[in-house]
Amino acid sequence: KNSFPQRVAVIGTGYVGLGTAGLLAHIGYQVTGIDIDPAKIAQLQRGEVPIHEPGLEGLLAGQEERLTWTTSYEAITEADVIFICVGTPPGPDGTPNLNYVTSAAASLAPFLNGHAQIIVNKSTVPIGTGDYVQRLLEDHSPNFDETRHRVVSNPEFLREGTALSDSLYPDRLVMGGHPDAVDYLARLYAPLIEQTFVPPAGTPRPDSYTRPAVVRTTLQSAEMIKYAANAFLALKISFANEIGGLCERVGADIQEVSTGIGFDGRIGHRFLQAGLGWGGSCFGKDTQGLISAGREHSYAMPILQAAIDVNYRQRQLVIDKLIRHLKSLKGKRITVLGMAFKPNTDDLRDAPAHDLIARLTQLGAVVTAHDPVAMPRASREWAHLTYTAAADAATALVRADAVIIATEWDEYVQLNWSELVGTMRRPLIIDARNILRDALPAQVEQIGREAAHYQPEQ
Ligand code: UGA
């Protein structure tokens, strides 16, 4: 039966699961999305998408015939390929929590049957988890047969905010595991590898794009590739921030410096944007995850530790800048523009704005915050913080002593800054994402660049 995959089950309906399910349905497979959260499944059945991700709603909406949602694991019986896309949130010591992976594997195992079924792990998991999942399947499935049921690691490299085009037009597909199982998964991905699918409306194939590299590895290497890729990107950002700090002190401009070094093909321009550093659910967790893995083997990873330290120092440097200008923050009205950890998402995990708001209120400031999409989520998830949510960016600026741009939403670039600065009590902009550059009124402090035309108060 089935030398060619047809039916797919996707466990987990977060960014990775929803993207994977939508993509595979679009390519033409019969997909069942499974989640243990009945509220999320009910939402998806009604055609609502539980997260904010550009284009996702459109991609899922066209697929009713090929894409169904359920809380029951029974669909596993029919599936040729089963994707595990559940979260691995960091525990208190920074190591990823594998509870969801463990329970997904244990729950799917009883439904494995006699035909070849590949279990693909897309969640970011510590090296060795693939083998662990295989053992769980063995323990929980009466039908387990290691020649038919194989685990493949197929890490996901999509970014939030651009998840769809990242998964439709990836740089590479990494597949680690037994060669037969990898071949089978490669057959499932054939339309993606050959780029023979019709691009969905709203996510056209970029002109320069041809097709992804296919990287076949062992299970362990694939698992390591995911961590190493994220750690390297995190490193690049922290490197830019570390050099940026020195730039400021010696009168250089980090934006010019990044541009200059990025033209060296060995370095590249991407992920050298200095500013508030990284947030989100991945870079912090994955750098910590590697350090913890090292520790288990008594192996120190000083470069990664330094990247983490530099990253979180950036948040304090922004506060230091404010204090330099305003002396005391007590009673000062500070506006934070942008709460999500990056634009085009409402994800608040490890967002720099969180730490800024917390620190500002601790120092006695009165904080107003705004975000184009994340405010409803913030009112639930950041209920412990004290700030006033502003209806729009312009209102947020009225009578402010300073504004910090914490997320580089396009809408903030487009604001009529010269006019809005006039409504502030003091014209102080801390452009912590370096987005305003030249189209500026005259009082901007950037990160990694000497105060730009700042006019001290009289
Ligand atoms: C990251 C990786 O980029 C993805 O390849 C990976 O699949 C994903 O983690 C994951 O492991 O799931 P993501 O966290 O969604 O994706 O977002 P990024 O675009 O990588 O941004 C991360 C953070 O770095 C953001 O806070 C962003 O503002 C910051 N950043 C990014 C910089 O400060 N400077 C830069 O030059 C680039």
UniProtKB/TrEMBL annotation:
InterPro entries with a match to the protein in the record: 6-PGluconate_DH-like_C_sf (IPR008927), NAD(P)-bd_dom_sf (IPR036291), UDP-Glc/GDP-Man (IPR017476), UDP-Glc/GDP-Man_DH_C (IPR014027), UDP-Glc/GDP-Man_DH_C_sf (IPR036220), UDP-Glc/GDP-Man_DH_dimer (IPR014026), UDP-Glc/GDP-Man_DH_N (IPR001732), UDPglc_DH_bac (IPR028357)
Domain UDP-glucose/GDP-mannose dehydrogenase C-terminal: from-to ranges: 335-438
GO MF: oxidoreductase activity
Family: Belongs to the UDP-glucose/GDP-mannose dehydrogenase family.
Entry's EC annotation: 1.1.1.22
Enzyme class, broadest EC rank: oxidoreductase
Superkingdom to which the source organism belongs: Bacteria
Keyword NAD: yes
Listed name of the protein: UDP-glucose 6-dehydrogenase
Chemical reaction(s) catalysed: UDP-alpha-D-glucose + 2 NAD(+) + H2O = UDP-alpha-D-glucuronate + 2 NADH + 3 H(+)
Stored PANTHER family: UDP-GLUCOSE 6-DEHYDROGENASE TUAD (PTHR43750:SF3)
Source organism (scientific name): Deinococcus oregonensis
UniProt-listed Gene3D superfamilies: Cytochrome c1, transmembrane anchor, C-terminal, NAD(P)-binding Rossmann-like Domain
Keywords: NAD, Oxidoreductase
Pathway named in the protein's UniProt entry: Nucleotide-sugar biosynthesis; UDP-alpha-D-glucuronate biosynthesis; UDP-alpha-D-glucuronate from UDP-alpha-D-glucose: step 1/1
